[in-house]
Design a protein that fits this description.
Length: 124
């Protein structure tokens, strides 16, 4: 399920790889505290702490409902965080950065969402 802060929701079968697996493959230093992820969309980026990054439900998603992830739903790659509201599940990912400090990104608030008045942690 994908839930939006505005009140709508969407249920789909999401296909992808756990973000924890990708982080294991690339190797993450012990001091890593956050994953910052960026979209091709201008000024769209978010971050999560390592607890959410390593959670088994956090996926790099490339498929939906038995098909390749459609562009309208974030294809070719989006991050899925079912434990947080929709704006944390950024579409059209271009890259990820693992860091120990969020102050060096944007205005230092942890993502574009708090810069626009939303909460950084958007847990359900």
């Amino acid at each position: 399920m994908l839930q939006c802060e505005e009140g709508w929701s969407y249920i789909a079968e999401w296909v992808g790889v756990p973000l924890s697996h990708v982080l294991d493959v690339v190797g993450v230093l012990p001091q890593a505290r956050y994953v910052v992820y960026f979209s091709i969309e201008p000024d769209t980026w978010e971050s999560i702490d390592m607890a959410d990054a390593l959670h088994p439900q956090t996926f790099l998603t490339y498929g939906m409902n038995g098909e390749t992830l459609p562009v309208g739903d974030g294809g070719p790659l989006r991050l899925r965080l079912p434990r947080q509201v929709g704006y944390k599940s950024v579409k059209f990912l271009t890259h990820l950065t693992v860091t120990d400090n969020l102050k060096k990104f944007g205005k230092g608030l942890g993502s574009a969402a708090p810069e626009g008045g939303y909460a950084w942690y958007a847990g359900i």
